[in-house]
Amino acid sequence: MKIFLTGSLGFVGKHLARFLKNQGHDIISHVRTSHQNLFLDKNLNLSNVDLFDEKSLITELQNIDVVIHCGAFVATWGKEEDFYRNNVLLTQSIIESAKKAGVQQLIYLSCASVVMNQPRALLNISESLKSTHIDGLPYSKSKGMAEQLVLDAGKDGLKTIALRPTFIWGLGDIVDRQIGKAAQAGKFGWFNQGDYLFSTCYIENLNEAIARALQSNQTGEAYFISDGQAISYRSFMEKRLQISDYPIPSLSFPHWFAWALAKFTENGWKYLPLKGSPPITREMVRLTGYAFTVSIKKASLHLAYQPKYSVTEALEHLSGLLPKP
Question: Which domain holds residue 78?
Answer without folding.
Answer: 2-173+199-230+293-312
